[in-house]
Amino acid sequence: MPQSKSAKTTTKKRTASMSKTANAGAGANDSMLKEFFEDSLKDIYWAEKHIVKTLPKMKKAASSEELKQAFDLHTEQSKEHVARLEQVFGYLEKAPRGKKCEAIEGITKEGESIIEETEEGTSTRDVGLIMAAQKVEHYEIATYGGLAQLAETLGLTECAELLRQTLEEEKETDTQLTDIAESSINYEAAEEMA
């Protein structure tokens, strides 16, 4: 007797769930994957610490009070992200150590050039600062998403939970920056004469 549509769906869900359970921790003994995971943690750890140093400079360059507050909030969140990464290193029984993140260094240098190339006190500068900050956010979103999945694959559930928590906060920050840009700054910049 053929299965009904709902029975097929239930069977597919059960099979997917069993497959997920069977694969949980599948890479735990895969030393190359775990080494890659730990190396990637060092990269984002360095990046977060660098971001903590860079955000106050962006705040100082911004003219919008709302944007300045967003940079303050993100600085505090980034400090929490550093502490959370230190917890992840703790679960791995490794000392927290950073490895220079070329991507974040490049993105923050681009942000510095935006400050140099735009006029102080303009909404155009604020637009540039938002774009630079969102480039950082998108890098972090990609990194934390990948790391959370790798942690899950390696059976490091506690690590995966911490990384997902940070991932969600990075997504929220990205959305907040978009909202700030769309609420007024982009429109104000459009009216500034060259």
TrEMBL record:
Region feature (Disordered): 1-29, 170-194
InterPro entries: DUF892_YciF-like, Ferritin-like, Ferritin-like_SF, YciF
Stored Pfam families: DUF892
Composition-biased stretches (Polar residues): 175-186
Protein name, UniProt field: Ferritin-like domain-containing protein
Organism (species): Filimonas effusa
